[in-house]
Amino acid sequence: MRKLQYLFMALAALCFAIPAFADGGSPAIDMVPIGVGLGMGLAAGLCGLGQGRAVGSTTEALARNPGTRPALLTFMIIGLAFIESLTLFTFAMIIIKVK
């Protein structure tokens, strides 16, 4: 309950502080390049982590049961393609948004 009280107090302070820092005459700041960098960095980094875990799990499964190699490799390739497609979709969405 105490944390919730602190949260509401902080939100109230932020709501009252916004008009104090308002500026009526300056042009809007273009934040698109920062968003593009953050979005692509997050997508690439997290997809890299996912691919590492997928390959690691497949390697572990192959070490335990080498007879399942054809099925595991097929599923691993499909999984890696889906993971990589997430990065490519993020890149396409960023290109569309920046345009």
Helix and strand topology:
Layout: H1 2-17, H2 32-64, H3 69-98
Helix pairs in contact: 2-3
What is the strand tally?
0
Largest sheet: none
Oligomer: single chain
Radius of gyration: 23 Å
Would you mind describing this structure in some detail?
With 99 residues, the chain is mainly alpha-helical. The protein has a domain at 45-99: F1F0 ATP synthase subunit C (F1FO ATP Synthase), CATH 1.20.20.10. The chain contains three helices and no strands. The longest helix has 33 residues, at 32-64.
List keywords for this structure.
single chain; 99 residues; mainly alpha; F1FO ATP Synthase; 3 helices; 80% helix; 0% strand
Short description:
By secondary structure, this protein is an all-alpha fold.
